[in-house]
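Weekly modeling sync, notes
Attendees: S.R. (lead), two postdocs, one rotation student

Agenda item 3: backlog of single-chain predictions. S.R. asked that every request posted to the team notebook include the full sequence so nobody has to chase files. The rotation student volunteered to paste the first one in as an example of the format we agreed on. Action items at the bottom.

Example entry:
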Amino acid sequence: MHEEAIEHLSKSDRVLARLIRKVGPCRLNPHNDHTPFRWIVRSVAHQQLNGAAAETILQRVKALYPRRKFPTPEDLLATPDERLRGAGLSRAKTASIKDIAAKALAGVIPATHAIRKMSDAEILERLTTIRGVGPWTVEMLLIFKLGRLDVLPVTDYGVRKGFAVTYKRDDLPRPAELREHGERWRPYRSIASWYLWRALEGTAD
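Predicted structure, as returned to the notebook:
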């Protein structure tokens, strides 16, 4: 699926080429099981928590709406903050999720069919107006939800650490330095990022 990207990355960066050979084929595939609204709610819930803890809290939030697979924006806005916080959301995350719901109803968060037609820059500009949603959250949506191929999350710890491991550095690259180096990876910087994440696992499975 990503043969063209792998060929380009291998030719443009010999160090990255060695990592690609070690890891093997890229298995980065977009997730189509969540709307942009759901994705953003889930992303905010996961911020600063490990996956298991975040999923436990999300299940408690969803349990507040037993007739729904996932709460609607209207559901969330109608729910008192105390109930959401009782499910485990912090005060800041409760405020963020309420703002996500409001922005969804206002049309700031596009539907799936609409967001696919937007450029990366348009999506970033629009979604970062939401409380608690920064560039990193949008970059993850672009890569893992929409399958955009040329996204480089230069502030992501895993990408920076993977770069340091791959290029045998003692320090993490500064975001500006990583962005400059990543110019050679265009237009497949998402694929390069995936390989840098894999570098931290130390295996090819």
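Discussion: group reviewed the output briefly. The mean pLDDT is 93.
Action items: rotation student to repeat for the remaining queue; S.R. to check formatting next week.
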